[in-house]
Every structure is written in C-alpha cells, then in structure tokens.
C-alpha cells in the first residue's frame, strides 16, 4: 500500500464568489421548476376557462328566442268549424302576413315576407286552433318564433352593417323586420322550446325534450342493471370470494374492462344485442344495456372501496352475537356502506350520461321529431343530440349545440353536487 | 305486455313471501323455539324461488324469441324464394314481412309475403302467450314446491343464503362474460372480414378506401382495405395529445405535490378533475368551434396552409382531455415515494428542484410511465373528439397540419346508419375494433403491471 498523506481537505469557502454564483444558479433552477409547475397548472385551468367561455359565448343566445306577435284570423272559409284540424292553415298564416304588411302587393315579396316567420308557424296555429275550437271565425294574437336568419339578426349574430352580399338576409328583409320591430311586435322571451320541443330540421323549433327523455330511459335501464349486479359482484369479491385463480382472473378482468375504449362496448352492443338477440336499433333499452356494461366496473370498484371502509369491529360485533355471515353483511355492513355506494353510483351514472360513441354505433343518433314513449322506441340521448346538432350546417344550430352542451354540463354538475352532498352528509369517519 | 308480466312475477314473488312468512309464523306458534329459521327467512326463501327462475326465463325468452321466429320465418318461405338468395336478400324479405305485418304497406305485397306476414303475426302472438303461461306456471310450481318443503326444522336461512351466493357469483361472472363477449364477437366478425380481405393486405396495405360496389357492374368500386394509414393517423394524433399532456400534467403534479400547500392543492386538484369529467363530445365541439379555426388563423398569418381538420387540432384538444389522467397518476406516484428519501436528499443540502429531478422522478418513474401508458391507451381509444375534429380520408403522413383519420373515426363512419353484416365495408370496422381492443388491452395490462410492481416496491 502506498502511503497517503492524510491532509485535511481545504475547507470550502462558502462565501467565495464561485460558491455564491453556484448557489444562485441552484436557487434559480428551483424557482424555474416552481414556475414551470405554476405555468402548467395555469395553462390547464386556462384551457378549461376558454372551453367554458367559448360555450357560454356561443350558447347563451339560444336560451332566448325571437318571437313575433302576429294576429291570425281563423276564417271559416279556411278552417271548417266542424273539423278545425283539416283547415288550410297555410292560407291562414299567409293572410296574417299580408295583414302585417298591407303595403306588399306582389306575391313574390309576400313569400319573402312570410319567411320571417318560422316554418313551424302553420303547425303552431293549427295546434292552437284545435286546442281552442271556439277560435274559428275569430281573430287572435299568437307569438310565433321567427325563422333562424331573423332570429340571428335580432340577436346581433348577423351584422346589419355588413354589405348585403356578405350576410344571409337582404336589405329588403331587414327593412321588413325593422318595421315589425318599430311596431313593437318583436320580443325575445326565454326559450322554453329548447327544453320542451323535440328535434326539428329548423333550428328555431329544435329542442332537447326527446334527447332528455331518451337519456333518462337509457340511464334508468343502466341503473337497473348495473346497480344490483355491481353491488352483488362487489360483495362477493370483497366478502366471500376465496383467494384463488378464478377470483384473480375476475379482478384483473374488472380492472381491464374499466379501461377498454368505450367504442368497443358499442361494437359489442351492435354485434350481440342487435345482431344476435335482435333487439331494436336506436332503442334506449340497448343504449342502457351498453352503458351498464361500461359503468359496471366503476360500480364494482366504488362498492368494494365502500365495503372496505367499514371497520372490522362492526362485523365482529355482529358475528359475536350470532349473526350469520350473510346477516352481518345484509343487516350491518351494507347499510353502513350505502352512502358511499350511492355516491359512486351517481358518479358512474354521470359518466354514462356523457358517453357518446357507443350510442352512435347502436343508432341512437336518429332524427326524431317526437320524444320516445318507452324503452323500446327509437330515441336519441343528450350527447348524441349534441353530436347531431354539431353536424348541422345551419348557423342557428351552432348556438343550440352550445346551449345543449351547457344543459348537459348542468345535469352533470347537478349529479356530482348531489354525490358530494351525500358524501358530506352521510360519510362517517370511524 | 312484457312489463305486466314482470309486474305479475314480482307480485307473485311478494305473495310467496307473505305465504312463507305466515306459514313459518304458524310453525312458531305450534313449536316455539324448535323452529330453525326465523319466519322472514321462510318468506325470503319462497320469494326467491318464485321470482328468480321465472325472471331469468323471461329475460332469456325475450332475448331469443325474435331470432328464433326469424329463423322459422325464413325456413317457412317457399323454396323458390330462398333459392340462390343472399343473406341480405333474406333479411330484406324479413323486414318486408314485418312491415306488412305491422300494416306499413306501400305496394301490394306478393302472396308469399302476405302469407308469411300472417304467419309472423300468429307466431308472435303464440310466443307471447306461451311466455306468459310458461313463466307463470314456473312461478306457481316453484311456490308449490317451496311450500311443501317448509317445515319447522327446514333450513330456510341456509337455503336462502345459498341462493344469494349463486346470484352474487353470477354477478361477479358478468365481468368475465362481457370480456368474453367482446373477444368472441369481435373475433368472429373479424374472421368473416379476413375471409373477404386477406390479413396481409389489411395489416400492410397502404391504401384505405373502404368502398363497396353498389351495383355489380360498377367500375373501380372494389375498395381497398390497407389499414396502415389509419394506424399511423391514430398514432400521430395520440402522439400530439401526449406531447401536450405529458409536460403540462407532469409539471402540475410536481407543483401540487412538492410546492403547493394543502389549501391550494385542495382547490386546484378538483378543478383539474373537472377536465376529466367533461364529456368527450364537448371537447369535440370545442375543437371544431374554437381550436381548429384558431389554428387555421394562426397558420394563415404565418402563411402556412392548414387543413380544417388538422391532426394538430384534434390531438391538441385530446391532450387537454388527458392532462388530468397524467397529473393524477403522476401525483400518486410522487406521493408514494417514501418521505425518508426526500428527507435524505434535503439532509444532503439539495434544493427542492434537485430533490425532484434527481431523487423523486427516478424513484417514481415506473409509476409515471404506467400513467403515461394508460393515457396513451385512452388517447388511442378516444372517439368523439376525433370523429368531430379529425378527417375522414386516410392519408399516410407525419405532418400534423394535414388531416388524418383514426381507427375510431373509421369504425364510427363505417357503422353509422343501416348496416348489413355481409360486406367487407362493415366487417372491416370489426377488424379495426379487434386491433383497437388488443392494442389498448396490452397497454393497460402492461401499465397496470408496472404500477402494481412499483407500488409493491415501496410498501
């Protein structure tokens, strides 16, 4: 061994300029990392803000609807008193338009003028007269929706100052509309039609009623299947299952199913439920079944977590006074775990409510002008309705789509708020 | 009708419960403490036996009734109609028969069809009534059997609990049945597809034009099923998404775990989770409404032509969607690193940044990689964003400014609308679905395994 001289290392001078510079660099690196973190969080939150802001900006105008108060005369000549439904309401509407603009004399201009009213005006007047047969032969005032271009014009989406060839309404049309405005016939009340009308080709008439009912039925089916099956499976896996290969396989399976792309469930639904079992296309029943397969893993996982959180002392106390294992679970563990399970269920259903892709594959994107009457009728769901409207070219549908998204987000926020409330109200710390 | 049947079975089951309970009540009155099970278990035993078998029977009956009647109808058609008819022709006959049967007649149906329609109506009525009769008699028989078995010493509780066990085991088995159902149905349809299009063409072909001839004599209508451009498009969009999400997600996780105090954490974490809770159709609309036009405008200002459905817009928005996945999984991984390692690093005089980059990140790397793999599988399988924002034509390109298509877009566009299951166009969707399922499954299994092994290391 060579001899080493064990001299003490030269003491490091912490206050030397090099050391100071190095420390400064290290602190700068520290601050940089913190800054990167802060910036990325701000980016993420900012993107969320932009997302919501852009939806609100395009969507808020769809919550009001331009309406025009028109005096209709249900002439007995056009509307037979004995059978008002068979009347010629097209003529009633065009007479009313003529009465609105007495100065118009030629037919072409009259036709342009009647385009201010929605295409659905005939139906609205007809339904009104059928509901009140006493109106035949009378004159009555009804507020009918303005058609989409004039609705947009009134809301300021179409700029009146643009040159005529760059907007969808001509100067003549604007003049007619302004004369209505001057007479105080134009109003913009809250758009109840958005919630109570079914889908329509005309943006001013299209509403979400069908989609909401369809989503409700699909979620009902989903709940009826996934809630009992999920709880039963979770109880078995958590409380009874022996630790062996088979239960391992089930567990791995559940974890994987939770991560399978949703569209694959749609393929399964199409190939099995529709092709093999011959269930009807577009039905909320099939939609709910597909959604229940998707929510099942979530249900099982949250139920197991809820069961696990019940302390063993409760089980032991019940076992100690002679309850059977099933009684322990049914009488004590399950009731105590129920708030947790319900919270998880609501969150699972909220996920199912926003799911779109599998519903497209089983045909829940049909164009339907009336809400479904039951779980076997063709239906749409809220997210598929959003998809359909997003694909429609009319300008009015862009704001309707945003409004529909806001409604969907409203439902989701409501469901999650209920879940959070349940958790805070009933959660017990042991 | 079916709804009433379900109600009737439930009512019968309820009646059985009361019958069972009151019978046991009489036992108790006569024998006192000798009676083995409490009356309520006798009731529950009877209710389960009356209700469950009948319900299961009805569900299976409903599932298979239409299929069986369809087969019978086809079999009952005269030979002259079946001769040389393709499956799609047969299904056309079937829907015509059903239309006629439900009174939607557009043209005068041929005598064979109207005869078949009459048969169809008759068989449906027979099947319905047969179902009611069979289900109710099963219930009644079960009630009778349950009643004869009841005795003071009868183990009603054990019997009821055994029935519960069976129900629970079957429910747990649903998870396996679903997985098997996915594998079997996708594989079956994919094999049908590979009979029509050879696998090597599908996996290595560079041309994706899933058309089929509408008329027999149509020129150049055979279509091409080379899926490589579809796969590359999927990977391109997923890669863009990960490029957006990994830095943002990872840095936010580092900030939340190491720098933020509890209060800030408690606010920011739920806000980030909101990003994960927004439905994907909303992101899709956001991409179309805001992001794609913004990117186009930016490109226009710099003089670059950007396609309206560029991979950049779809991938970028998808990246926003998966930020919370990466951040929450990295968050978990960073928190799982034992405090002692942090303390050791600080004791050596390291700053927070040095601790994070030299100690925590290497230690948490497996967990983070697992999270990224899960996010990648999510990005590959994501559907609505790309359906709305990405293109339909399959171009083989790595340029993010061009429009590309993805596996999920193709599946949706191929299967939307009415579909027949005998042509390569629809079947190719199932082949794509099978590839998607296998790839995401592999990614998930790998990720879950990495995460689990890593977790064990520190526990």
Automatic annotation (TrEMBL), chain A:
Membrane topology annotation: Multi-pass membrane protein
Membrane spanning stretches: 33-57, 216-237, 257-279, 285-307, 328-350, 403-422
Domain of life of the organism encoding this protein: Bacteria
CDD domains, A to Z: TM_PBP2
Gene3D superfamilies: MetI-like
Residues annotated as domain ABC transmembrane type-1: 212-418
Keywords: Cell membrane, Membrane, Transmembrane, Transmembrane helix, Transport
One matching Pfam family: DUF3333
Cell compartment(s), UniProt: Cell inner membrane; Cell membrane
Protein name: Phosphate transport system permease protein PstA
From TrEMBL, chain B:
PROSITE patterns reported for this sequence: ABC_TM1
Compartment list: Cell inner membrane; Cell membrane
NADP listed as a keyword: no
Keywords: Cell inner membrane, Cell membrane, Membrane, Phosphate transport, Transmembrane, Transmembrane helix, Transport
InterPro entries registered for this protein in UniProt: MetI-like, MetI-like_sf, Phosphate_PstC, PstC_N
Membrane topology type: Multi-pass membrane protein
CDD domains in UniProt: TM_PBP2
Pfam families linked to this entry: BPD_transp_1 (PF00528), DUF3708 (PF12501)
Superkingdom of origin: Bacteria
Transmembrane feature ranges: 40-64, 126-146, 166-188, 235-254, 274-292, 304-326, 359-377, 429-451
Domain ABC transmembrane type-1 per the UniProt entry, residue ranges: 231-447
Family: Belongs to the binding-protein-dependent transport system permease family. CysTW subfamily.
Function: Part of the binding-protein-dependent transport system for phosphate; probably responsible for the translocation of the substrate across the membrane.
Protein name: Phosphate transport system permease protein
Organism this protein belongs to: Chelativorans intermedius
